[in-house]
Amino acid sequence: MNPLFVFSSILIVVCTTSVRSKSPVSPFTAASGKYVSSYDHLDVGHLLKNDKLVTAYIKCFMDEGPCTKEGKQVKNTLLPDIISTVCSKCSQKQRNMARQVLTNIYQKRRSDFERIMEKYDADDKYDEIITFMNESEPETES
């Protein structure tokens, strides 16, 4: 499995489609309008320990490095959607995963977090994302 796709899917499955009606249908959304659970089993903590992988994703998302096909899909649909909806289409497990990824980037790579938010936060959801990151993590459904 492509690690960029895995991280992208989590990033911010981490939760996951396109919220704007003019946007193309996302490959990450189920018929229910919620994000698919295909990657819910991933160990986000393990992936976040790989600095090279995290750097590659950030470069992809910021148009500073190459992206795989999946990375482009995440960059163009998933990431903006998760930020603009504050993960409203996520299952509880996906919300917990998104929270873990966002918090990790915020704490360990603050300047990258700020740049990502500046680029993808067209709806000015910064404060809501910070609140989301600080929510407690309820148990996840199986």
Describe, in plain words, how this protein is organized in 3D:
Residues 1-21 form the signal peptide. This is Chemosensory protein 8. Keywords: Signal. The chain has helices at residues 3-10, 44-48, 51-61, 69-85, 92-108, 110-120, 126-134. The protein is mainly α. The two termini are 22 Å apart.
The CATH homologous superfamily is called: Insect odorant-binding protein A10/Ejaculatory bulb-specific protein 3
Order of helices and strands: HHHHHHH
How many strands in all? 0
Counted up, domains total 1
Main β-sheet description = none
Number of helices: 7
Tell me the name of the CATH class: Mainly Alpha
Summarize the amount of helix as a percent range: 40-55%
* CATH T-level fold name: Antennal chemosensory protein a6
Radius of gyration using CA atoms only: 13 Å
Question: In whole angstroms, how far apart are the ends?
Answer: 22 Å
Mean pLDDT: 79
CATH architecture, by name, is Orthogonal Bundle
Low-confidence stretches: 1-5, 12-25
* Strand proportion: under 5%
The helix-and-strand class reads mainly alpha
